[in-house]
What we know:
The structure holds 3 protein chains of 3 kinds. By secondary structure, chain A is mostly helical. Chain A has helices at residues 5-24, 28-51, 82-105, 112-131, 135-153, 160-191, 199-203, 209-226, 235-238, 244-253, 258-265, 267-270, 274-295, 301-321, 325-352, 365-368, 370-383, 390-400, 406-431, 438-441, 448-463, 469-473, 483-504, 515-518, 523-570, 577-600, and strands at residues 64-69, 72-76. Chain A contains 26 helices and 2 strands. In chain A, strands 1-2 form a two-stranded antiparallel sheet. Chain C folds into 2 domains: 2-127, Four Helix Bundle (Hemerythrin (Met), subunit A), CATH 1.20.120.1200; 128-168. Chain C is built from 6 helices and no strands. In chain C, helix 1 packs antiparallel against helix 2 and helix 2 (26-46) runs antiparallel to helix 3. The termini of chain C are far apart. Chains in contact: A-B, A-C, B-C. Chains B and C meet through helix 1, helix 2 and helix 3 of B and helix 1, helix 2, helix 3, helix 4 and helix 5 of C.
Amino acid sequence: MIAYAPYLILLLPLFAAVAIRLFLHPFPRIAVPVSVAACLGSFLGSMMLLSSGTPPGGMAAPAIPWIELAGLKAGFGLVADPLARLMAALVTGVALLVQIYSLGYLAKDPCRSRFFAELSLFVFSMLGIVFADNLVTMFIFWELVGLSSYLLIGFWHERPAAGAAANKAFLVNRIGDFGFILGILGAWSLFGTISFADLPSRAASGAPFWAVTAVGLGLLCGCLGKSAQLPLHVWLPDSMEGPTPVSSLLHAATMVVAGVYMLIRVLPILELSAVTMNTIAWIGALMTLLPALIACQQNDIKRILAYSTLSEIAYMVMAVGLNIPGPAMYHLVTHAFFKCLLFLAAGSAIHGCHDEQDIWKMGGLRKRMPFTFLVTWIGTLALAAIPPVSGFWSKDAIFAATWDRPGLAACSMLAGFFTSFFMLRMILVAFDGKPRTEEAKHAHEGPPVMVVPMLILAVLSVLSGIFPVAEFLGMKPDHPHHSWTLWLSLILAVAGFVPAHFLYADAVKDPIQIRILQAKFYVDEFYQRALVATQDGLGRLADAFEGWVVRGFVVRGSGVLARSAGQGLRLVQCGQVQLYAAVFILGALGIITWLLWKGAA
Amino acid sequence: MMFGEITLGHYLALSGLLFLVGLVGVLLRRSLLIVMMSLELLLNAANLALVAAARFQKIPDPQVAVFFVITVAAAEVAVGLAILVAIFRLKKTTSAEDFATLKF
Amino acid sequence: MEQFFFWSLAVGLMAAATAVVTLRNPVTNAVCLVVALVLQAALFVTLEATFLAAVQVIVYAGAVMVLFLFVIMLLDVKAEARRPVPWPKVAAVVAGLAVVIAGVPKLVAAFPAAREPLRWSDGTTPFGAKELGTLLFTSYAPLFLATGVLLLVATIGVVVLCRRDPGT
């Protein structure tokens, strides 16, 4: 029975989503509890799975045969190894808390049935990625997750900004998926298998270095799209147009880390090429620093958190590049808790200030929403990696692996400095000081359904550092532990608070204005220009082709040809009998000559 | 070889040259009357060749052919000149360049 | 002796023919043509075709050329004007000449009989009227009759063509 547990866990939210969408749409009072109940069911199933040992039949649930061609066998199968179980428990648990929170956040929204249906769909898709036992199955759910994200970002579809953001997310993901598909096909042609179980053994067989590197980079593209890393990171800040629960669940805790999860699954392939690993590590390192810098100058509370998400995911990516999947997963788990907590707290602040998201229009919330203030501080400490909160342990594990790579260490530790800086900036501006608007003056805490999940997450943020993730997964890193990484990173993190305090305590407007950071390094503008230039170029090419080849050559050309042929042939009809006779004689002469020569031969 | 005994080749060469001259006349003269005279030259060249063949091959049949050629040539000249007269009555000219009504 | 006659007659024939084609006065042309036809008849005699020589003189030189002269008189044809030398046409003529000169040896080589010399006292009987007549009325009788019809048709045609329209 327990072998089928993954199927049950996977399909329960799907049933909820379908039921709501088809039947229960007009009855939110029934639809919403159905969705929450399905999520609860999946969570309980995952916890059961997590606590039980290896089932007698092995860890894979029976597969459904699907594609069976010569050379390709792709079944539709689920696997429940420790990695999958951990992720499933995490995903369902956080999803459950967010759904409960949404009961309060969207209590007055007329479309909330649709929201919960789409959330359930998302949980189903994400669990699909988690439980998938081969790359093709994972890809199907990958795309489903992209769809769920599109639906949820654009949930308030009357807002044009939301629609645009949803499109951007989907399209940028698609670009990454293109590379992903190429990587899958390459892996399959090189190794003859796309099943995660077979990969470690098959990958060891010799394959040309450049081919393995290309496959690795292709698979990396999928991660870059889904987890929003350089250069496909542009969709994540825009995705904040969606409701805050969506931001917390998808774009902080679960969906964006799917890329990291995938990379860990295909690590046997990535390991084969040092070029791939280095690329991954450096992309990770750069992406810890750059978003942290941008966040120092952002004024929308959700955008600040979005950029910090980019930075934290980059830590996980860098960890994969350093071949320490254990600490990567460790950080993934702790980050899910504290980032989700921070987003829910931000949502609480937004809700309290009547949907105002600009921190410069808040202020003085400390006294009016003390609980939110407290949990925000807990989240910040975790994020900034201050001991003894969980974030410290996980981040330190990653820092420890950079002991012999000074470039990576420098980038990531500096990012820690700036992380502390902008988080304190956010807290000081939004919560301290005097309220700067009328709404801020009347802010109050949310209902219990919003408070309780935050409470649970706060506790988990503090304590989750105790859970030995790496050992549980069997991925303990095996490098010597140098304490200088620990001390240096800690010093930098604490030091980041200092300038923030001096600059932003009692500030009414931002004392520093750094243009390039405010403009997010102009990446969006660059892409826009590039896209427009390409389309213009292609358009011009098509126009020239149409003008010259189709209109000129084919259409007019055939006319000209016909007419000139006619003109030419017309000259033959001159009316002069003697000319006709001359041509006649010439022809006859020709034939006679030919006959004579032929006869003589 | 050329100035030795007269052979069939000589007669054929003569016929060929005569034909060539007639051809020149047919193609290059403007007055239709002269063209018809050149036409007679062509026919005569053919007759010469035929008679020479009859003599050297010792068969009478080419001579019969010549007989017919002369007869038909006479008929053809009669009709041709009648046409020429009719055209002249219409156009008052016998120059070949003036008869280009079939020009496109 | 054969050579003497042949060459003199040949040169004369070519000269007359060239005169027909090049001179401008139509009457001169007609007279030259008569000369050419008579020389042709003489050539027939050298080829021992005496009957045909007679026929040539009577029909061709006698009837056909008279017809030509009558028409010249009727139409009052004037001499043609001078024209500049048309070089492309001259080139064409030269080309034709080349073909003839090149072609005759080939033809000659094809017929072994072509190398036989001409001798007038061969001992063979030349064909006379009797032989020709026999052939005409037996083997080629249909053609003979057809030629008769042709002459009739030609006569009628000429009369019709030269009729003036009623009322002109």
